[in-house]
Write a structure and sequence with these properties.
Layout: E1 5-10, H1 14-26, E2 29-34, H2 37-47, E3 51-55, H3 63-74, E4 81-85, H4 87-91, E5 108-111, H5 116-131
Parallel strand pairs: 1-2, 1-3, 3-4, 4-5
């Protein structure tokens, strides 16, 4: 990929977005942030990001999943998806999307809270897997 890798970060938690934008920017990524699903759709259309990092619990309980399906189908985005969630922390229930890849079409699923190093590593490994 030529130039900076564009990451679209869709999350309605401004503190999470701000902290991770600083970390990702310091790792030479170009970060586009969206605090809503509608804003995320617009930024996918306008910017064609290289990878999309989306929170499962944006706006509604399952909005992250329905949105990523819509981005894949309607916008025909082939960018890898990393889904983040504090689902286990908020509900106490375990959530394993890898067991249902057809229903949960994500390249990587990470539980919040997570260290910035883990996020950077998963972004790089998702992009490397896509290039193969």
């Amino acid at each position: 990929m030529a130039g900076k890798i564009k990451i679209l970060l869709i999350d309605d938690d401004p503190d999470f977005v701000e902290a991770n934008t600083i970390i990702l920017d310091s790792n030479c990524f170009e970060v586009l942030a969206a605090s809503s699903i509608a804003e995320g759709f617009r930024k996918v259309k306008e910017n064609n990001p290289d990878i999309i990092v989306i929170d499962l619990l944006v706006e509604k309980t399952d909005e992250g999943f329905t949105s990523l399906r819509k981005i894949r189908q309607e916008l025909r985005s082939s960018a890898p998806f990393i889904m983040l969630s504090s689902f286990r922390q908020q509900t106490g229930y375990s959530f394993v999307p890898d067991e249902h890849p057809d229903y949960f079409p994500v390249d990587c699923f990470l539980e919040k809270p997570l260290s910035p190093d883990v996020l950077v590593q998963k972004i790089r490994s998702s992009l490397s897997a896509q290039e193969k």
